[in-house]
Amino acid sequence: MSLNFYTLDTDTVIEGYVVMASTTYEFALNHFVPLIGRLDIQRDALNTKFYSRLEDDIVRGCVMPPITIAMIHSFPDRQQALDVVQDYISENIESAFVLDGIQRLNTLHRASFRDGFDANRAIHVNFIIASSRDRLLYRMITLNNGQKPMSARHQIDILADAFFDFDAIDLKLVAEKGKGRVRAPESFKKADFVKGYIAYLSGSVNIDNQKIIEEKMDELIALKIIDSDIPTSNVEFMDIVDLVNKFSKSSLLRDWIRVQNNFIGFCVGAKTSAVELKLLSIEKIEESVKNFEKAFSSINVSKVNLGKVRREMVAFFFQNYLNLSKLDEFELLDRISYRL
Amino acid sequence: MNVTIEISGTSIEGLSGGISQNAARSYQYLLIRLLLGTVKVSRGGTRSKQIMDYSSLPATVQTMKPADAVRDFLMSYSIGGSVNRLIKVTRVDNREFYKEILSEFLNFQIQTARGSNTGAFVFLYRILERISYSVPLLYASTQSDFRDTFKDLRSILNADIKGELGMFKKFLDKGRFIESIKLCVAQNISFANLGGHDADYYKLTCDRFKRFVSKDPNAHELEIKFLDIPDFLITIRNRFFHSLTGDEKNNITTIEMPDSDEYFGRINPVISSFLAIVALQSIASKYRT
């Protein structure tokens, strides 16, 4: 049970070395976790929902990003060989500090008591050896500050750009699952599309409430995504995109899905019924949507409320598509009005 | 014609423009103006501008002119219609009830302006008690489906709940009066920079209330979900406003709480945010266009 060292680089700014390594959870629990709390200027463990999800994921076999362990030492010569530095690390590990990854190690510690925890899984480590405490502080500040954590919404926005091609004008472009960029459904504005993606991931139509300040809304979206079943679900957003592309074969459905509130409701509801919808003919789906619209037209909501209610009802309709698509206009109205 | 309105000794005046005599006839409208952060209040030598917009979560500084702020409120709380319409329809309903609620909030404001945060807290608790039965009933009366409303009410009234505030909690929990997503918003309570007593306040709080979203023992900060605020309010009130020897309830001592005004100064904002939103929502639910 030991460290596997891979690379050694000289950091001339902090006059030290950076070493990439990996080891097992067991080693980390025995040698890294006890180091926590040594560097007084760092904060102790926080107890939040985010880390409880990480705890689950550790047991399920996720691989965490590398943690950073720091040491203070001035080597006599400028250029050291890997084995000299390695030996130093191995022999002096108990006087090291956890520079980045305290929360992760605490979570690992909690996870180690759970059923199914595998202590032999790998954890990756960056070792930083600086020649003075001040230089280490400097590295810590440049590591942790100046990088504002991105909101979940922002992260999704960026990835959406990577996954989907919004600028493509070549109409013959065919979507290939898993291969590079995919053509977004015709004439969808990126902002609307991303909203749908966020709604899909968080399982909620309520993603842009005006009276909740943006920072809190972002927190809630992240929380909902963490709570969701994305790792275990059989449905992917690509399936929704495929369905939307299928809709363009019907002019009614093509226009219908392009209404933002319908699209958002659909992204949430179709998560549940994607499998069935794939098998149905476009005519059947068109019929059911026409029926839905008839039922919905009877709802007496003020203009100011209409968008929100439409999103919710569309989501409800598609979530329970199997049952609701069988009902006639009035039976459907009964079920919808019950939800209002 | 603009008037100065006086409610039981406290005066309200609109910021930048004043409140018309016609508008002043609606206590609900005045309450909205207060909670949107568009008025100044005074009592004796105490003058205070209320510029926090409690309709947002968390509360933010109001940057709009009063007329725009009210129009924005009509939109974002899904009421619709014009400001004049709102004044007209709210003028005659539940006058006694909203006059009292308005008065409690005004008292809260004056006490806070004087730095008497312990006193201010008393008014927050009074508001919670006042609304705990009435708001669920008010809301029930606005619903369009009798059968469901009856079912809902019956389940709330019959349930195994402790005290009248239990019913309010159950009512909120359903996520229909105030949408579930708002109920999940977490707000910060910080005891930082309180003349060396940070740790004391933090500890006494964590010892009495267990349902925080997150705790930071170093920065002495806590996060609490919107939905849990009434329970928090009740717990702190019960533990501090009683000190009966031998009642074994782990009441808070003054040794633990060196300066109650300091303490309540930090928890009142989160509580008033909650109560303000409930008050605003109670009006919004009834007067949708």
Short description:
The complex is a heterodimer of chains A (340) and B (289). Chain A has 340 residues and is an alpha/beta fold. Chain A has 15 helices and seven strands.
Described by strand count, sense and barrel closure, the largest sheet of chain A is: 5 strands, mixed
* Helix-and-strand structural type of chain B: alpha+beta
The pair of chains with the biggest contact is: A-B, 25 and 30 residues
Per DSSP, what share of the residues of chain B sits in E-state strands of 2 or more residues?
A: 5-15%
End-to-end separation of chain B in angstroms reads 28 Å
Strand order of the largest sheet of chain B: 2-3-5-6
- Coarse structural class of chain A: alpha/beta
Mean pLDDT of chain B: 90
Oligomer: heterodimer
The percent of residues in helical segments of chain B reads 40-55%
Total number of domains of chain A: 2
Largest sheet geometry of chain B:
4 strands, antiparallel
The sequence of SSEs of chain B as H and E is EEEEHHEEEEHHHHHHHEHEEHH
Approximately how much beta-strand content do the residues of chain A carry? 5-15%
Count of alpha and pi helical runs of chain B: 12
Q: Based on Cα principal axes, name the global outline of chain B.
A: globular
- How many E strands of chain A? 7
The stretches of 5 or more residues of chain A where confidence is low (pLDDT under 50) are 39-45, 168-178
Indicate the low-confidence ranges of chain B by residue numbers: none
